[in-house]
Amino acid sequence: MQKSIDLVISYFPELTEKQIQLFDRAIELYVDWNTKVNLISRNDMENLVERHILHSLSIAKVIQFVPGTKIMDVGTGGGFPGIPLAILFPEVDFYLIDTIGKKIKVVQDIVESLQLKNVKAEQKRAEDVKNQQFDFVVSRAVTRLPDFVNWVKYNISKKQKNSLRNGILYIKGGDVLEEIAYTGKKYSIIELSGFFKEPFFETKKVIHLY
């Protein structure tokens, strides 16, 4: 079981002492909760830090969100990538949604335990998020990209404040070009193997759709 945050610190040496404490506490909470609710597969819990926390933080290798940025995490599951990103970016607002109520209850408990004032979590379908605009929508491969774009296309603000154009930041592995083509969106693909040396990241990417 990976219980040490040292791997994250090695890639994000600028973490504050408070952030390191929050990540340590988050690991404890995930280990505890996963014995009661199957947030993460038993096999994957052995690699919690690498495959969930660091994987979520890969977005921070692509963009440093400016304070006041608003982000929606769709299909957050156990709170990924939203919770790790919220720890890293305390001045950015995160809205985490998932359709599975028991997972959202756990996410809400973890958010409360960590006292993350910049996170709101709700049981909701992306299509039901009406009249709310975000700078970015983030997710970890919850569905095919064309479907995902349809879910959130009305939720992306046109007012720009970050170095990247507002849009979708989607973490996914494998061949993505065919899916991207069906979205009709402009895009860039950032290979995570350029940032992380672990074999897990060899085929992983952050896709920016705008």
What is the element layout, followed by pairings?
Layout: H1 6-11, H2 17-34, H3 42-45, H4 48-57, E1 70-74, H5 82-88, E2 93-98, H6 101-114, E3 119-123, E4 136-140, H7 145-152, E5 167-173, H8 177-183, E6 187-191, E7 204-209
Parallel strand pairs: 1-2, 1-4, 2-3, 4-5
Antiparallel strand pairs: 5-7, 6-7
Helix pairs in contact: 4-5, 7-8
Largest sheet: 7 strands, mixed
Strands side by side in the biggest sheet: 3-2-1-4-5-7-6
What would CATH call the homologous superfamily?
Answer: Vaccinia Virus protein VP39
Indicate the CATH class. Answer: Alpha Beta
Distance between the termini: 38 Å
The CATH architecture category equals: 3-Layer(aba) Sandwich
Describe this structure in words.
With 210 residues, the chain is α/β, with parallel strands linked by helices. The chain has one domain (6-209): Vaccinia Virus protein VP39 (Rossmann fold, 3-Layer(aba) Sandwich). It has helices at residues 6-11, 17-34, 42-45, 48-57, 82-88, 101-114, 145-152, 177-183; strands at 70-74, 93-98, 119-123, 136-140, 167-173, 187-191, 204-209. Helix 4 (48-57) crosses helix 5 (82-88) and helix 7 runs parallel beside helix 8 (177-183). The longest helix has 18 residues, at 17-34. It is globular, with a radius of gyration of 16 Å. 42% of the residues are buried.
In short:
With 210 residues, the chain is α/β, with parallel strands linked by helices.
Entry keywords:
single chain, alpha/beta, Rossmann fold, 7 strands, about 20% strand
